[in-house]
Amino acid sequence: MLWKNLLFISVRDLFAKKGRLLLTMVGITVGVACLLFLLSLTTAIKKKVITEVLGTVPETELDVKSEEVTLLGFIRMPKEGAPVLDEKKVEEIKKTVPGIRAIYGTETIALPAEIKAAIELPESARKTLEMFGLQLKPFGTDCGVSGVPRELVADGLEHPEDYAFKKDNPFVPVVISTHLVDMYNISFATAMKMPRLDPKGLKRLNFELWIGESSMASSGRVIGPFPCKAVGLSRRAPIWSISVPPEYIGYWKKEYYREPKETVYQKVAIFAESVNLVEGMEKKLEEMGFEVTTNKETISKINTASAVINALVILVGLIILLISSASIINILTMSVYEEATDIAILRSVGARKAHVRGIYLLKAGFIGLVGALDGLLIGFIAIQIADNLAQKYLHALPYRPDTFFLPSFSLAGACFLVGFVFSLAAGTIPANIAASLNPSKVLREG
Amino acid sequence: MIKIRSLTKTFVKDEARLVVLDAIDLDIARGDFVMILGESGSGKTTLLNILGAIDTADSGEIIVEGFGDILSASDKRLAEYRNRVVGHIFQTFNLKKIYTAYANVKVPLLFSNEPVRDAHDRIVRALERVGLGDRAHYRPPQLSEGQCQRVAIARAIVSEPEILLADEPTGNLDPKTARKIMDLLVGLNRDDGTTLLMVTHDVSMLQYAQKTVSLESAKIVVRKK
């Protein structure tokens, strides 16, 4: 087979100058390795953000709030005249906006509140403190209290039946925000050198809730303590509040104000029957005077940001490959002129221009093939090392992914193909130069 | 075997036109050993290169028996002609240093359009014919100049061509080695009936040829038998 013969000639010529072969391949190797490394990193980050941070919020969900204004750049307050999300308004939404599958309201008590947790010490430690006349005070913090339907925090409930309003329940079931735990661990705990909160340990935490007073404010009346127990951690739970079954809010408001109070939701989560209806529903709700956000927009923004980052990463990789292609053109063209007499001899014994072109394209292809394969190998090794180092030294990173890199066969295949094609494309210039050499002129000039 | 009619070749150098071959006519019979003489720049190598289809002519025709006019043949047909009909022998051997003698001789067979079933046998036969059967695995740097030229001759005859074109094959050799090479070429011409055209500016080589052609001022001036 002629191509086998041309390959024989190409490979023998390449291996006659091993140092030059290695030098020519380095650029392709580095380019492919960089592409694989960086794209694996961005893929893992995107997956973490979309599936774990946003994955719990479906694309059919619309979050509706009363319009707010921002003061001093960070204080958000209800806009004057904006419609209020009370039970009546919610009914109106149900009647006016078509395509609603389900609607859940989140109500936050507009009162200061505080939770206190007693830290249980071993008996010996307690007795030791008592000997010195010391006592460990309960750990307390201000917080908000929100009534959040079970459906919205289901992602964090091992036993969903635990999260329910039961008059005879000795504990109020509480769900805490995972984001709050993450933020505490990476900021407060790290800065104050306090022990980090273990999410698993938090699920067994018991504490008491006081409503009406906190370390920062007092309403003049206090109700409580209400024994609480954490039954789950959810990414959907409001960050600055503890989440309880909504019935508790009504119950506590009645106990505090000594009369029933109407329900006013801070936020309503509406689930559409299908993704196609979301845009229309969003428009309708905005016309009704509400602020609406959808996961679709957020995912779209993340996808756009991810595409931009990916494009930048690919650009870096392509620039490296472009430079290495220039090097291939340079080195192979130099080879053509060095091997001009050999080329003339090949022509004199029956090689056609196409055969000569083929020899140099095969050289470039071989360089691309081996260089790209080496690049994949080095890329995978670098990924393994970097991931191990990142897991070891970045364990405190918020939203730390399980793995910092997500290479795949399709990604590796794409990187390989790009490297190979660049090399082959670079080979066309020296191949054409070789094919166009005039054998008689070369032989005459020596 | 070869009929050359009105062959003309012109080179353009520094905007000056140089006529190297001016309407050359020449007939070469099968089995002829033709010596082509002339001073440097008289067009000897150009004539050989055109006959070997590694250079083109401006006008004329060269009819090769069994092939046709090589000046009007396609690129593919010319490649076949160079592979199977002619064999080239150069003054500077032009062997690939990284290849063994065996691999150098094999090169023409790599470009054969048809699979060469007895390729190994042909290579061995060619090397033995030139007296280098025991040097097949030596590389050119390990061979003497005379041996290198013999490898080049083996490469030229491995495809069993009908025509051999030798461009000053003894130009780089000492007299003793040159004689040996000439004996080899004469043997190929006499024993195999290969038509041999040889370019030289060394008049002492004339004794080997049956026919002598001189090129002067782009014309064939003298023909001797």
Features:
heterodimer, A: 446 residues, alpha+beta, elongated, B: 225 residues, alpha/beta, 6-stranded mixed β-sheet, 4-stranded antiparallel β-sheet, 6 helices, 32% helix, 29% strand, globular
Summary?
The complex is a heterodimer of chains A (446) and B (225). By secondary structure, chain A is α+β, with helices and mostly antiparallel strands.
Walk me through the topology.
The complex is a heterodimer of chains A (446) and B (225).
Chain A: H1 2-16, H2 18-53, E1 61-66, E2 68-71, E3 75-78, H3 87-96, E4 100-108, E5 113-117, H4 123-131, E6 139-147, E7 172-177, H5 178-191, H6 199-202, E8 206-213, E9 218-234, E10 241-244, H7 246-257, E11 267-272, H8 278-287, E12 290-294, H9 295-338, H10 340-348, H11 353-393, H12 409-435, H13 439-445
Chain B: E1 2-13, E2 16-28, E3 33-38, H1 44-51, E4 59-64, E5 68-69, H2 75-85, E6 86-89, H3 101-110, H4 119-129, H5 145-157, E7 163-167, H6 175-192, E8 195-199, E9 211-216, E10 219-224
Parallel strand pairs in B: 3-8, 3-9, 6-7, 7-8
Antiparallel strand pairs in B: 1-2, 1-4, 4-5, 9-10
Give a written overview of the molecule:
- The complex is a heterodimer of chains A (446) and B (225).
- Chain A is 53% helix and 19% strand.
- Chain A is of the alpha+beta class and 446 residues long.
- Chain A has helices spanning 2-16, 18-53, 87-96, 123-131, 178-191, 199-202, 246-257, 278-287, 295-338, 340-348, 353-393, 409-435, 439-445; strands at 61-66, 68-71, 75-78, 100-108, 113-117, 139-147, 172-177, 206-213, 218-234, 241-244, 267-272, 290-294.
- The relative contact order of chain A is 0.19.
- In chain A, strands 1, 4, 5, 6, 7, 8, 9, 10, 11 and 12 form a 10-stranded mixed beta sheet that branches.
- Chain A is elongated and about 110 Å long.
- With 225 residues, chain B is of the alpha/beta class.
- Chain B has 6 helices and 10 strands.
- Chain B has helices at residues 44-51, 75-85, 101-110, 119-129, 145-157, 175-192, and strands at 2-13, 16-28, 33-38, 59-64, 68-69, 86-89, 163-167, 195-199, 211-216, 219-224.
- In chain B, helix 3 (101-110) crosses helix 4 (119-129), helix 4 packs across helix 5 and helix 5 (145-157) packs parallel to helix 6.
- The two termini of chain B are 17 Å apart.
- Chain A binds chain B through residues 2, 5-6, 8-9, 12-13, 16, 341-342, 344-353, 355, 438-440, 443-444, 446, and chain B through 45-46, 49, 52, 54-55, 75-76, 79-80, 82-84, 88, 90, 92, 94, 96, 98-99, 107-108, 110-112, 155, 159.
